[in-house]
Amino acid sequence: ASKDFVPHNLEVQVPGRVFLVTGGNSGTGKATALEIAKRDKQLLTHVSTEPHVHLVCRDQAGAEDARGEIIRESGNQNIFLHIVDLSDPKKIWKFVENFKQEHKLHVLINNAGCMVNKRELTEDGLEKNFATNTLVNTRSVYILTTGLIPVPEKEHDPRVITVSSGGMLVQKLNTDDLHFDGTMVYAQNKRQQVVLMERWAQGHPAIHFSSMHPGWADTPGVRQAMPGFHARFRDRLRSETQGTDPVLWLALSSAAAAQPSSRFFQDRKPVSTHLSLTRMSSSPAEEEKLIEILEQPAQTFK
Ligand SMILES: NC(=O)c1ccc[n+]([C@@H]2O[C@H](COP(=O)([O-])OP(=O)(O)OC[C@H]3O[C@@H](n4cnc5c(N)ncnc54)[C@H](OP(=O)(O)O)[C@@H]3O)[C@@H](O)[C@H]2O)c1
């Protein structure tokens, strides 16, 4: 795919722009944060020319290591860490409120994701793979994005990007509870993310929303959640850095901003959110129901 790329699309400087990357301590999230932090390296004559990158991570020690590595490799000191467990709606709201008061934001990158496959129950009796996958992949994106939207909305060239997955192509939006199969729940959550981006794009025309598939990349997440897939295809997977290209292009390039908002991208190209010959599109009523399902509990935890 890279044969068709316009190389200078990513040769951009983003002085003073503020980025937030969830899951910025691992896999494609860390590689994305590093690549953004490196932008403007040639302008290091004055600290204010560098982009600011906020990492939202759950594990303090691992996140501090990642932050240190990003600072060392990029030479950019403006890397900030926020410890938030994205499966905890209360903690996300608290983070949103603090962040809004203290920081600007131009580009939100909803990258964190998980695929929990073990069948366990939470303390509330919810199936853990359903609860955890959905809390991290869909509810956290919902709360973080609805909460933070007013911040980039005030800025020039604001963008929201969600790292979805091509896996969502096998799922039609389903607002009934899904159980048992972590892979199916994951794909459903990734479908929900794409629908959310489309809905937000309608309500917030000043912001450029997009979702994307990073390509299959060799990350800790893939190694852990899909060991069989990883063992079979390891030689053909993208590196973490290669997996960042789609998100970097959406976050940085003016070519991406020139595309209509709300599209789903693969390798710098908008592609259909539905496989041909399948009936995966959802009705406005089904999409409205998704918002209702997310909105009411989200407010409960505010
Ligand atoms: N790699 C691929 O081929 C591929 C393909 C399609 C889509 N994706 C998507 O790409 C994104 C990045 O995944 P990856 O492959 O880079 O996997 P990864 O290395 O496992 O990264 C996932 C990130 O999400 C964070 N995260 C998970 N649960 C969290 C929580 N409760 N609170 C805060 N952070 C949490 C992880 O933190 P910890 O390190 O603390 O666990 C980690 O930083 C995900 O959304 C994934 O679904 C990846």
TrEMBL record:
InterPro entries: NAD(P)-bd_dom_sf (IPR036291), SDR_fam (IPR002347), SDR_member_12 (IPR052992). It comes from the Eukaryota. It holds the Pfam family adh_short. This is Dehydrogenase/reductase 12. It comes from Colobus angolensis palliatus. The lineage of its organism: Eukaryota, Metazoa, Chordata, Craniata, Vertebrata.
